[in-house]
Structure formats: C-alpha cells, structure tokens
Amino acid sequence: MRGFSLLLLTVLIMSFTFGSFAQSDVDYGGDDKTPEDILGQYRIVAVCEKSVGSEDPPLFKAQFEAIETDWQGHVERDVAVFWMSQDFILSWRLQPSQSVEKDVLLLTGGQVDGIASLQNKFDCNEDALERGEVMLIGKDETVKLRRSEPVSISELFSLIDAMPMRLQEMQDQ
User: What are 110-168's pLDDT values in tens digits?
Assistant: First the structure.
C-alpha cells in the first residue's frame, strides 16, 4: 500500500509540476511497461537530475519545453523522454496526438535494481544528478550526446537524422 501511495503522490506532483502534462492526454502506465522495457525501441532524450521535493527540476523542464516546440518531429524520430532522479525514473513515450504514455520505475516496490541498472548503464551517478545532464541515447542503447544544459531541437534532430538506423528508417519510408 505504501508503494501505491508513493506512486500516486509522484503522479500528482508531476501532474501539477508540469502544466503541459496536466493538459495532455496521459496514459499512466496502463500497459505495465517500465522505462527499461522501451530501451532499444525508442531514441531516448534522458535528463539525469536530482528531484528536490515538489520543485520543478529546471533542466528537465527546459528540455521538455524545447521538445514541445516540435512534438511531431520527435514522434517521427521515435523519441521518448526519461527523467532519472535519485529515487525514480519516469519516461514519456510521445504520441502523435500531442499525448504521452507515461511509465514509472520507482525506488520502492522491488524496482531498486532496475533503477540502479539504468543509472549505472548511462552514468547517471550522484555527481551527474547534482549538476544535471541531458543525454541522447540511440536505439542501440549507447549515449550519443551528454551535456549539462538543454539541447536545441535542431541539434537533436541533426544527430538523430545522421544515425544509421534513422537513415535506414527514412529510406524505408
């Protein structure tokens, strides 16, 4: 029951913290996916940033606001968004109708190994959490870009569009 309460609290905080999510059509994990489940299926824009109470994480908020400027471009490139904090990992799979499917991996409820595994895999350690980092992770699950400031949409799209898998996807269309 405590795990469910924490999940509900996290969802409520995130709904109020990010006005764009409150206005979007959000599926709160009805298909029981976790962020681990979508690796390799999506290109990931991941923000490694510590959460402090109910305050907006500034780097994540800035990066998501940038993403909202060209939602469809991200959908076409199979982009999902991760926020990796010290206590949880949230992911949003962007959908064509400016909606998201939200998945949660919490520190409670036996998911500690999943969080540690993803944080270790992408070097989201205590230092990275403290300073904040934005990463672009390819479908091959390797980090293509790491920066301590928001990444522009034009730079993200240029990097993604130069990836071999993306080139193949564009050719197949």
Answer: 456 677 788 888 999 999 999 999 999 999 999 999 999 999 999 999 999 999 999 99
Say how many C-beta atoms besides its own lie within 10 A of residue 68's C-beta.
14
Neighbours of 8 (CB within 10 A): 11
Surface-to-core class of residue 24, CB atoms within 10 Å of its CB (0-12 exposed, 13-18 middle, 19+ buried) = buried
Token pair of 30 as six digits: 């009805």
Please list the alpha-helical segments (H only) found in the chain: 2-17, 19-23, 35-38, 58-68, 71-76, 112-121, 126-131, 153-161, 164-172
Amino acid at 153: I
Residue 151 carries which DSSP code? P
The pLDDT of residue 8 is 30
pLDDT value for 80: 86
The three state secondary structure string of 86-134 is CCEEEEEEECCCCCEEEEEEECCCCCHHHHHHHHHHCCCCHHHHHHCEE
Q: What's the gap between Cα 45 and its chain centre?
A: 6
Structure confidence at residue 131 (pLDDT)? 92
Q: pTM, whole model, 2 decimals? A: 0.74
